[in-house]
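Standup notes, protein team

Yesterday: finished cleaning the Intestinibacter bartlettii set.
Today: Endonuclease GajA/Old nuclease/RecF-like AAA domain-containing protein structure.
Blockers: none.

Input for Endonuclease GajA/Old nuclease/RecF-like AAA domain-containing protein:
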Amino acid sequence: MNDRKIEQFIRGVRLDMDKVESFYNVATNIDELSKEILGDFLKSYGGKSLHDVSHGESFFALIMNKFGKNGLYILDEPEAALSPIRQMSLISRMDELVKGGRQFIIATHSPILMVYPKSFIYEIKENIERVSYEESENYNITKDFLNNYKKMIHILTK
């Protein structure tokens, strides 16, 4: 697939966010199904109500317990729910799934997730452009901040 076709595909995937259910509502629906209909339904999500754990832990339970069947997984900023160590765990889980033939499309600002081997990184600015990990804006901003954090904090808090 050439870059132009990928750009058209990405633009075509945009969703009307008013129609997308929140993760909270998904967790509530799972609880209701478990109580009313299926009894053991929570076992397929790690055995706990997703409301009884943190947002990050409930999101990670979903990844660990429900991602596995053949498919294409589209994730929008999964790092919002995950600590840096959990982002690294996500890379391990993604690798297991990719080796089994699954695919991912991930919108992310996380330099941790962007480093996944054999990934294609596209930056969306005025145009959509394929870049290397080291060329990506998020990598460079994070690297500059970590290498000069005292100076950066001084500038940011003047």
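Follow-up from PR in the comments: The chain has one domain: 3-132.
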